[in-house]
Amino acid sequence: MADPASLNTLAAIDPVGDRTGAVGHMDGPRGRRPRRTVSRANIFLYGTLLVVSLYYLLPLWVMVMTSLKGMPEIRMGNIFSPPVEITFQPWVKAWAEACTGINCDGLSRGFWNSVRILVPSVVLSIAVASVNGYALANWKFKGSEVFFTILMIGAFIPYQVMIYPIVIVLRELGLFGSLWGLVLVHTIFGMPILTLLFRNYFASVPEELFKAARVDGAGFWRIFLQIMLPMSLPIFVVAIILQVTGIWNDFLFGVIYTRPENYPMTVQLNNIVNSVQGVKEYNVNMAATLLTGLVPLVVYFASGKLFVRGIAAGAVKG
Amino acid sequence: MSTTHDEVSSLADGPSVPARRPVRFLRNWSAKLATVPMIATALVIFVGCTGWTVIHSFTNSKLLPKLNWAGLDQYRRLWSTPKWYVSIENLAVFGALSLIFTLVIGFVLAALLDRKVRGEDVFRTIFLYPFALSFIVTGLAWQWILNPELGLQSVIRSWGWDSFTFDPLYNARIVIYGLLIAALWQGTGLVMCIMLAGLRGIDEEIWKAARVDGIPTWKTYTHVIIPMMRPVFVTSLVLIASGIVKVYDLVIAQTGGGPGGASAVPAMYVMESMFSAQNLGQGFAASTMMLLSVVIILIPWAYLEFGGKKRG
Amino acid sequence: MISVREEKIVRLTTSLLGATALCAATSASALDFEVTHWWTSGGEANAVSKIAEAWNATGNTWVDGAIAGGGDTARPIMISRILGGDPMDAFQFNHGRQAEELIEAGLLLDLTDVAEEQGWKEKINPPSLLDACTYEGRIYCAPINIHSWQWMWLSRKAYEDAGLPVPTDWDSFIDSADELRAAGKVPLALGGQPWQATGAFNVMATALAGEDAYLAVNRDKDAEVAGGPDYAKVFEAAAVARDFAMGSNVQDWNQATNMVITGQAGAQIMGDWAQGEFALAGQTAGTDYDCLPGLGEQAVLDAGGDAFFFPVQDDPEVTAAQKQFAAMLLSPEVQVAFNAAKGSLPVRGDVNLESVNECTKKGLDLLAAGNVMPAGTTLLSPDTTQQINDLMTEFWASDSMSAADAQARYAEIIANAD
């Protein structure tokens, strides 16, 4: 896997890579030829990468190690040392026992709520944004760029400012307090960046392909469903990753636009981390933190290479 | 939903490949219909709700939004509050540094990974994973590592360097760098990925030509590659900048604005005005100022980027 | 530990059956009743579970909407829910000026009939608590406890470790602080949350400048007193205390309390809710820790506290349940169980706290003697409070802002207070 040559082959036989002809050559690393010998440049190269990796891994190391220690050991030892005695009690407690208010059932309470919020929000926001991007790239009409510019400015508005006006909008729509209200809010705030990515992606599709379909009499939706969608897996992966991360980690909207029975996992995380029961239980905090981050992390690890390819497609052209 | 729209699209008149010629209202209308959600969002949420906020910034709304006009009072008060100045100064320092460092680190890491590195997948995953974690998590982890009694400082002191002092979160003068360390940790991975993708998009021929001409590698990067990657830098810039303006969660999780309010940022000023001080008008005024500065920076850029003609 | 708590709860439930009978008159059919609050620290959560137990015993179901992070996190959520037309059934709020606008807008339930039926006017002591719930002659909230800020908590362990006598007043605390520091202790624990710095300052103001000066500044907004010699003394003292607080690198108030509990710190200036943390840590007043109301100088307690408000709902059944809930909060059983756990004092003078500890006793005595003044939240608007918080947190964390500079800015805020 680590061998550059095998990387090239992998990319070459990847059907997705073949179909995304529009995207350009994504087949493996560029740059200068590799030198197999241990040269000074190589030592510098790997040395730098390893040192930098330390910076990125340090917090994860600390979190994992701490979550496996008991409180007495945490108080005594230093935070970087591995546990003398491994305990999974903090994980159990974070998942099933930690108290927030009077409910002592940890994060488990919110997990399925988070899933129920996540799935429709991701699906709807991506569906809407992909159609937006497609229309903006291939079916421009008078004023479409104006709306797009408004959307881009919208990406810079602090969410907090929008809380009350959106409460009023949702109330008027009769969606306030329901799961669908929250899904709508996620769709709205995911729209700017996602639309940008999809627009750039579809703009990089060769115009000839589009023209040929038009000559065949295909309309807006048929071109979208039959030509564009099948070749846009990478950009969908990027969109899914961005949305899963953003929506899963959301606290503010989840707590404001739903009711306690629908509170996402982050509300419990906030409650566990911010409510101190006597001594701050760092090990439970860390375990809770890791548990909450697990879903987006798994998505990342599972989609590693597709992510770069998708990013390349959505972000590079434009 | 899709079936009705399919019928609609079959009715769409003549081929109207991107807007080259003037379009009549009905032309291309399935596209218009399809973008109704976007248009509604742009108009109702981003224009409507923003307008609502701006209008209410001229009132003396306290706990509840009300239309009791107060003229420019809120703005006068805003610009006479020391904390607001601290906030914008912090945002300027934090923003400039995080913009520069994110771009530089992101690019350098991408360039290193692009040197046909063994284990690229592993390194890439390591650099990217923090992006999966929320700012609550990031803030908490770094709060702990930077805690002088538990973290880095105490560990290095225990190794014998007794005078070692590194407590950015408890020192008003350097607290902003403590935030920066965490922000870079969380955000550079994504930019690295974007840069890497950009580097992969550059034709091998260019490298060959540069080598034939005997141009040193670093010079090829600065004079050839980076100029070619302009769109990549633009996308990265949008992502980073939109994050910087909104930076709030991280500050709350890591420092709570402390010590002594030294790490306050505008978004926090907005939140505190609205919900702690129960002075909505003041919070709206502050957010209007934030919005104004974004618009001033963004409109010329948007004009250059999307205005009228399409490049290439 | 859990089993002990469960046992307590069981005992409590049985004792509460009596209370249930009392409320049964207005009882409707069982329903889910959502209560939003920010009581999430150990002692607080324990206390709120007493109310929940009592409520569940009436056949209704308590739906817990706990939001950690204090009022600043919870408030936007509460207001959004009420504005959005999908409110919770009851919510915790500080009484006083914060809720005025919600009442004006007709969003909160009028509890006057419950209050009259239950005779709140005769029972609630001090009466200022009910006044804080009253707006234009109508009552809109149910006070549940009395909290006072004017306390200093001292760690016996810290002073024993340092071989020093436990101070009995502010001056002796100051005198021994340097020696305590030399013994490796932080003399004064202070968390980083802004309201803690303001609170500590106000306690020093009442203790050192006196009740009259405090009220002149906070009630009458007299900027001359705020900039005058009495308050200059307070700012000087705060500058001294600031040095003694250096090194308490914690954020939350209960972490600061924990420094006192574990003997890392000598003392903390904090309201009586800190007692809930001492109790949870198994410590006893008079043997493990000591308390000095009014810093051992002038002991006047401010009678602040928490209250529950009830958003107006369309469903008459819910309205009935809200009133039932309000009546239950002031029942003797809930008052005893809740306040014993929270470390606060009951709002009615006619209940008997079985075994009050030494510190609670001091508080009750002061209350009985009438050494009471109105709470800060009823005097200053949240806006002014926030400005003072900003100044205080800057002053306490700074090593360069002089007492005189801070006082000048303070006087300006008071002059502009609404």
Tally of strands of chain C = 13
How many domains is the backbone of chain C divided into? 2
| Alpha-carbon distance between the two ends of chain B | 35 Å
Q: Which superfamily, in CATH terms, is the homologous superfamily of chain B?
A: MetI-like
Largest interface: A-B, 113 and 124 residues
Which structural class do the helices and strands of chain C define?
alpha/beta
* Quaternary structure classification: heterotrimer
What does this 3D model show about the protein?
- The complex is a heterotrimer of chains A (318), B (312) and C (418).
- Chain A is mainly alpha-helical and 318 residues long.
- Chain A has 15 helices and no strands.
- The two termini of chain A are 32 Å apart.
- Residues 1-27 of chain A have low confidence and may be disordered.
- Chain B is mostly helical.
- Chain B contains 15 helices and no strands.
- Chain C has 21 helices and 13 strands.
- A five-stranded mixed sheet of chain C has the order 2-1-3-12-6, with helices on both faces.
- The termini of chain C are far apart.
- The model of chain C is unreliable at 1-28 (pLDDT under 50).
- The chains are: A mainly alpha (318), B mainly alpha (312), C alpha/beta (418).
- At the A-B interface, α3, α6, α7, α8 and α9 of A face α1, α2, α3, α5 and α6 of B.
Record the SSE blueprint:
The complex is a heterotrimer of chains A (318), B (312) and C (418).
Chain A: H1 4-13, H2 15-19, H3 40-67, H4 71-76, H5 89-97, H6 108-138, H7 144-154, H8 163-173, H9 179-203, H10 207-215, H11 220-228, H12 233-249, H13 252-256, H14 265-274, H15 282-316
Chain B: H1 2-11, H2 29-34, H3 36-56, H4 73-78, H5 82-113, H6 120-128, H7 135-145, H8 152-158, H9 175-200, H10 204-212, H11 217-228, H12 230-245, H13 249-254, H14 266-276, H15 280-306
Helix pairs in contact in B: 3-15, 5-9, 5-12, 6-9, 7-9, 9-12, 14-15
Chain C: H1 2-23, E1 32-37, H2 42-56, E2 61-66, H3 71-83, E3 90-94, H4 100-104, H5 112-118, H6 120-123, H7 128-133, E4 134-135, E5 138-139, E6 141-143, E7 151-155, H8 156-161, H9 170-182, E8 186-189, H10 194-209, H11 211-218, H12 223-226, H13 229-245, H14 253-261, E9 265-269, H15 274-280, E10 289-293, E11 301-303, E12 306-309, H16 316-329, H17 332-342, H18 358-368, E13 372-374, H19 376-379, H20 382-397, H21 403-415
Parallel strand pairs in C: 1-2, 1-3, 8-9, 11-13
Antiparallel strand pairs in C: 3-12, 4-5, 6-12, 7-9, 7-10
Helix pairs in contact in C: 1-2, 1-17, 2-17, 10-11, 10-13, 10-20, 13-21, 20-21
